[in-house]
Amino acid sequence: MTASVPPERRMANDIAVNLGHLPGESAAEAIAGHIGRFWDPRMRSRLLADVDAGADGLHPLVIAAVRLLR
Question: pTM above 0.85?
Answer without folding.
Answer: yes
